[in-house]
Design brief:
4-stranded antiparallel β-sheet; 12 helices; two-stranded parallel sheet; single chain
């Protein structure tokens, strides 16, 4: 897809990443296409019945309504943060869109990606965007309904959040925004490239190692989405692991291959610095943990399970 050999499909890319982790025990038609098509039909009908066509952002508005509130199309079950604990928090399956499609529960990665797949299906101009350890949705306010040019949709808490608040809460610098690291809507090609990084993440979660496969994934991903700190970190860790393993085998002797891996490690360090990524401090960690507790109380008050 990235090289233009086949058509770009974010839905297919997400499926393949999850399918690989589950050893092929996932069905594209049943676990992805059928539900996405059903929801797409409902959203299109929702727009028509509620006469939303007058808005340029009708599709985005309808999708938010579908996620946030009980409607017949979601079986009167809005999409909420998953506090059930059915799967341990460090289990990679928590990231899966396929779980969201079935349960209507997810977290700050899987909920925005589910929204993006629905948006792709109905051709809505909505985009994945990143914050430090976080994902959300952005779309352009073509109807001038909000005070900012872009609308930031936080799906975990069912909120439209102003940019200044996101910057402050996640300690995002202006440099990180101008570089395209955070608070930047991803193109569809960048979005597919991000799935290659998720594929590498899933591989590490499954096999507990970094190797040539993880390096190949993120190097390809970085060609199309170079300002992804996660991909750069995996690149550095993969190169370090390959270097250590190689030195053990060849008696610690330097050669062209060790020079190549050393170069990748140094590249990773510089690339990471260029992203101006937010560094996780104890203060930030406590702030985010507090926000998690507030979100849980909010869901209880709203009557969500």
């Amino acid at each position: 897809m990235l090289e233009g050999i086949t058509d770009l499909s974010i839905k297919r890319a997400v499926f393949l990443s999850e399918w690989a982790y589950l050893d092929g025990n996932l069905d594209y038609e049943k676990d992805f296409c059928e539900e996405i098509n059903r929801v797409s039909n409902f959203i299109n009908s929702f727009i028509s019945v509620n006469h939303l066509e007058k808005y340029k952002t009708a599709k985005q508005m309808a999708l938010c309504e579908y996620f946030f509130n009980p409607w017949s199309g979601n079986n009167y079950k809005p999409y909420t943060y998953d506090f059930t604990g059915e799967i341990p928090t460090n289990d990679w399956r928590n990231q899966f869109v396929s779980r969201v499609l079935k349960s209507h529960k997810g977290q700050c990665h899987s909920l925005p990606w589910a929204y993006k797949l629905f948006a792709e299906a109905i051709e809505a101009k909505a985009y994945i965007a990143h914050g430090p350890g976080h994902c959300f949705i952005m779309y352009k306010d073509e109807d001038n309904l909000y005070p900012e040019e872009w609308v930031n949709v936080e799906l975990t808490s069912h909120q439209y959040q102003p940019t200044f608040w996101i910057k402050e809460y996640f300690a995002i610098s202006d440099s990180a925004i101008s570089k395209g690291t955070y608070l930047t809507p991803l193109s569809d090609r960048q979005t597919v490239a991000a799935q290659l990084t998720d594929l590498a993440f899933g591989y590490n979660a499954k096999y507990h190692k970094y190797d040539k496969f993880t390096l190949d994934c993120v190097q390809m991903s970085l060609r199309y989405y170079p300002m992804n700190p996660n991909a750069i970190i995996i690149k550095g860790k993969s190169a370090e692991t390959l270097l250590l393993n190689y030195l053990k085998k060849n008696g610690g002797l330097a050669d062209y291959y060790t020079d190549y891996l050393d170069l990748l490690i140094m590249e990773s360090q510089q690339q990471l610095a260029n992203t101006y990524m937010t560094q996780l401090t104890e203060e930030l960690k406590q702030r985010w943990e507090s926000g998690y507790g507030i979100l849980q109380e909010h869901q209880k008050k709203q009557g969500y399970e």
